[in-house]
Amino acid sequence: MKEKENKNAEEAVVETAEEQIELIEKVIAIRRVAKVVKGGRRFSFNVLAVVGDGRGNCGYGFGKANEISEAIRKALIGGKKRMFRVPMRGQTIPHAITGHFGAAKVLLKPAGPGTGVIAGGPIRALCVASGIKDILSKSLGSDNAVNVLKAGIDGLSRLKTRPVSEEPDESES
User: Fold this and answer.
1) How far is CA 10 from CA 4, 7, 16, 22, 34, in A?
2) 71, 88, 98, 138: which is deepest, by most CB within 10 A?
3) 168 Cα distance to chain centroid
4) Range 86-157 has CATH code 3.30.230.10
């Protein structure tokens, strides 16, 4: 009897935890790829997706499967596993940075309040999912969605914030 009550209590806790964290899931690219075999071509799908909570956490996933829905599911699970914290100052990033991956470079710059997300393709989806409201970006080099996204993630993951000192500044006293 008590075991049944404990199970119900655990399920309720899990359900409320999932309800509190509403994840933003964006599919960036779906590609159909073919493998040539003796009898012809075998088609499968690759999906690139971004997952975030809109409060500074985001991640990406890459899923492959014979069905589109299965590939999307795999990509979203991978994105939830790879989530990381993006340091933010207000609704923007703390400083300008360039992310690199392969031949792709992505320049990310903080923007003033009300500017919005000035970004395209994978970087826009990444910023929206992570909760960044004001940012300027420029994609340089490769336009491959996977490499541009990984370059953007490289830039966001290398952001640093200045620690707040607890001692008052001597010049103010």
Assistant:
1) 10, 5, 10, 20, 45
2) 71
3) 37
4) yes
The structure tokens listed for 138 are 């420029």
Nearest to 105 by CA among 155, 60, 62, 58: 155
Q: In sequence order, which residues have a C-beta less than 8 Å from that of residue 123 and are 6 or more positions away? A: 106, 108, 137, 139, 148, 149, 152
pTM score: 0.80
Q: What tokens does 91 get?
A: 């609704």
Structure tokens given for 120: 């395209």
pLDDT exceeds cutoff 50 at 16: no
Enter the CATH code of domain 22-81: 3.30.160.20
Per-residue tokens: 31: 């590609």
Average pLDDT on 20-35 reads: 90
